[in-house]
């Protein structure tokens, strides 16, 4: 089943807040708003759920100055400067969009944690790419695509009806190839990456296939499909979820340090100091276990051929 970026955000928040959900104070827009509006309308019956300070609409965080109980009119603090705060971007929002008061885990921060986790899985995990080019007589070096991080294996198409691709052992990946032409290198590698083929017996005109390693892509839009966009299989979703939770939970612990003494004293028996850190360590252990499992599986599923590096 395809999982989108928005659905992955929901999975992470559900892990952090529990399946019964932390009952956040919410309202909803009763009219569309643009990215430049400094006043917006919410449901008058639930406007009191919003307090002065931080609110969230979609992925945007806003600062509220005041609100009108009778009309549901909400005014943003500092005009346009109160839009898109805390590193978020001011955006247009549609009627009925949910307005959340002082969110515990803002969507923008959850999305950042998810993408940070995706980036951190490389080079333990990787995505495969491939490219082909014909062998040219007397040519030693061939350009490769820009997203190549390393070459995994190289095969060559044989002559005859069998169409067998045999492994090529004498090759070298050059990650700093010349990007300009000259007398010595008449054909440049525009991306600065190339494959050098040495001591080969390839018949000119036969195709050379390069299977290479590349980094996963991060997610951008809420509708981005996890597998299609990142290049990772869907079985990695729990791995990314655990990693995002591990990255987000320490913020809960640091927030406790800012509480007033009397509040901290009252909460201590219910939520002892270190609870957030312990939960973070738990998710980190789950993440590391799944990362090790998938790294081992990846190396077992895809055998590489020995390369020539002399």
Any descriptors?
3 domains, single chain, six-stranded antiparallel beta sheet, 310 residues, 6 helices, alpha+beta, Elongation Factor Tu (Ef-tu), domain 3
Describe the structure.
The protein has 310 residues and is α+β, with helices and mostly antiparallel strands. It has 3 domains: 1-20 and 104-125 and 218-310, no CATH class; 23-103, Elongation Factor Tu (Ef-tu), domain 3, CATH 2.40.30; 127-214, no CATH class. It contains 6 helices and 13 strands. It has helices at 5-17, 107-120, 226-230, 237-256, 261-267, 275-301; strands spanning 26-28, 39-41, 53-57, 60-67, 73-76, 98-101, 127-134, 141-143, 150-157, 165-167, 171-174, 194-197, 207-214.
What spatial form do the alpha-carbon principal axes imply? elongated
The order of strands across the largest sheet is 1-6-3-4-5-2
The Rg value, from CA coordinates, equals 27 Å
The quaternary state of the protein chains shown equals: single chain
Number of strands: 13
**What percent of the residues sit in helical stretches (DSSP H or I)?**
25-40%
What is the H/E string?
HEEEEEEHEEEEEEEHHHH
The major β-sheet equals: 6 strands, antiparallel
* Overall tally of domains: 3
Strand content: 15-25%
Report low-confidence residues grouped into runs of 5 or more.
none
Instruction: Count every helix, treating DSSP H or I runs of 4 or more residues as helices.
Output: 6
Helix- and strand-based class? alpha+beta
Termini separation: 46 Å
What average pLDDT do the residues reach?
Answer: 88
């Amino acid at each position: 089943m395809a999982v989108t970026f928005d659905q992955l955000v929901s999975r992470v928040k559900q892990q952090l807040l529990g399946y019964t959900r932390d009952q956040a104070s919410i309202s909803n827009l009763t009219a569309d708003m643009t990215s430049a509006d400094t006043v917006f309308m919410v449901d008058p019956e639930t406007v009191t759920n919003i307090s002065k300070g931080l609110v969230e609409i979609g992925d945007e965080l806003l600062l509220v100055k005041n609100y009108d109980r009778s009309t549901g009119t909400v005014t943003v603090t500092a005009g346009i400067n109160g839009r898109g705060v805390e590193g978020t971007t001011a955006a247009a929002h549609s009627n009925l969009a949910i307005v959340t008061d002082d969110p515990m885990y803002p969507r923008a921060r959850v999305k950042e944690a998810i993408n940070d986790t995706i980036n951190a899985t490389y080079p333990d995990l990787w995505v495969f790419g491939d490219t082909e080019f014909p062998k040219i007589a007397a040519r030693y070096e061939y350009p490769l695509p820009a997203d190549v991080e390393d070459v995994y294996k190289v095969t060559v198409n044989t002559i005859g009806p069998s169409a067998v691709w045999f492994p090529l052992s004498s090759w070298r990946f050059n990650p700093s190839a010349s990007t300009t032409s000259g007398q010595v290198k008449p054909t440049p590698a525009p991306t600065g990456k190339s494959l050098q083929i040495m001591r080969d017996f390839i018949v000119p005109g036969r195709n050379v296939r390069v299977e290479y390693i590349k980094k996963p892509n991060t997610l951008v839009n809420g509708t981005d499909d996890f597998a299609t966009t990142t290049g990772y299989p869907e079985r990695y979703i729990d791995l990314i979820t655990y990693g995002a939770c591990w990255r987000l939970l320490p913020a809960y612990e640091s927030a406790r340090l800012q509480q007033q003494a009397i509040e901290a004293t009252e909460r201590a028996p219910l939520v002892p100091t270190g609870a957030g850190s312990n939960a973070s360590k738990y998710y980190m252990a789950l993440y590391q276990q799944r990362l090790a499992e998938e790294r081992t599986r990846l190396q077992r599923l895809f055998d590489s051929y020995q390369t020539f590096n002399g």
